[in-house]
Amino acid sequence: MSNPSLLILPGDGIGPEVMTEVKRIIDWFGAKRDLAFDVEEDLVGGCAYDKHGTPLHDDTMAKALQVDAVLLGAVGGPKYDNLDFSVKPERGLLRLRKEMDLYSNLRPAQCFDALADFSSLKKDIVAGLDIMIVRELTSGVYFGEPRGIFEEGNERVGINTQRYTESEIDRVARSAFELARRRNNKVCSMEKANVMESGILWREVVQKVRDTDYPDVELTHMYADNGAMQLVRAPKQFDVIVTDNLFGDILSDCAAMLTGSLGMLPSASLGAPNADGRPKALYEPVHGSAPDIAGQGKANPIACILSFAMALRYSFDQGDEAARLEAAVEKVLADGVRTADLLGEEGVTPVSTTGMGDAILAALD
Ligand code: NAI
Ligand code: MG
């Protein structure tokens, strides 16, 4: 059997710096765990524009559709801010998401004990927190028609439309229930069925998917505004949360910040399962290209490393190896190793991007 395949797209700014550490970790799994990947590397974002005049070359797009998983660093930077909208770096990322049809966006909010002091919430509310928000990513109010700014009488009106089909709700619900089965069999679905018809349909369809195909998973429903309150009041009551594009955008950012630094946050975007049951998948840190620290060896590589851990778990069925990598990160943090973005205590000297990679590799050994 051939090795599983990975397309690596480091991108711009700190993207290549953090990805260098991930590549060392990928090599470690090949050498020490007999888990080798066929890795290809290519350009996305500003660097692709510099070379090809487009932020995503058709050949790169074709590769992304073929491989088992794509791992992306970050795109963009001030150098590209004045480019035409059609060739802006983020268009490369948007094209990947669209053509891979990545409708299910997984955003974990996980609190490493060693960093619990970083949260804006009390330590006991966040210590040990481990929840996953599943955000619908390809439909809803960001895409619904009609949309636009129109003349109406003597003033203008701005219009966006929240629109969900049953099949769009069905597939993201399935993605959440599948995920729940790999975790603690518990899903909370959030909408506003009290004031939105799309929310009524959302609630109905999610319940039906659960009753028909996932009776083993516990399902509750919550209005999204209450969900926001509960997330900051008692976040540990949740395990998997599934919600629409708009509520998911806000709730996932809120949940992520319960746990501290942007340099720690991974994400996954999953699409339809292919013939062997593996979903199309793109893994990337939540942070951007951080031009303010790019090229200085200061970037925290953990968000990108944890994104690879998600790939191990969700694309390659290597949950144990993912846990091994996460435990190595946990150990390094517990030992007090910190990149500059994680400095809280006085008198701690930060390690470089490479230094953090070294420490995690040592912990893996
Ligand atoms: P950003 O996430 O790049 O940076 C925000 C702040 O967090 C900066 O102070 C940065 O130094 C810090 N930071 C981010 N990641 C870090 C890490 N791994 N280690 C240590 N510190 C880290 O967001 P910003 O500044 O809004 O955007 C910068 C550029 O990135 C823009 O061109 C933007 O369009 C792009 N961007 C790209 C994204 C992507 O590729 N998915 C997502 C967000 C922004
Ligand atoms: Mg957001």
TrEMBL record:
PROSITE patterns: IDH_IMDH. Pathway: Amino-acid biosynthesis; L-leucine biosynthesis; L-leucine from 3-methyl-2-oxobutanoate: step 3/4. It is found in: Cytoplasm. Keywords: Amino-acid biosynthesis, Branched-chain amino acid biosynthesis, Cytoplasm, Leucine biosynthesis, Magnesium, Manganese, Metal-binding, NAD, Oxidoreductase. GO terms for cellular component: cytosol. It catalyses: (2R,3S)-3-isopropylmalate + NAD(+) = 4-methyl-2-oxopentanoate + CO2 + NADH. The record marks 142, 192 as: Important for catalysis. Substrate binds at residues 97, 107, 135, 225. Mg(2+) binds at residues 225, 249, 253. It is an enzyme of class 1 (oxidoreductase). Gene3D superfamilies: Isopropylmalate Dehydrogenase. One of its GO terms (biological process) is L-leucine biosynthetic process. One of its GO terms (molecular function) is 3-isopropylmalate dehydrogenase activity. The keyword Nucleus does not apply. Its cofactor is Mg(2+); Mn(2+). Residues 5-360 form the Isopropylmalate dehydrogenase-like domain. Catalyzes the oxidation of 3-carboxy-2-hydroxy-4-methylpentanoate (3-isopropylmalate) to 3-carboxy-4-methyl-2-oxopentanoate. The product decarboxylates to 4-methyl-2 oxopentanoate. Belongs to the isocitrate and isopropylmalate dehydrogenases family. LeuB type 1 subfamily. This is 3-isopropylmalate dehydrogenase. It comes from Pseudosulfitobacter pseudonitzschiae.
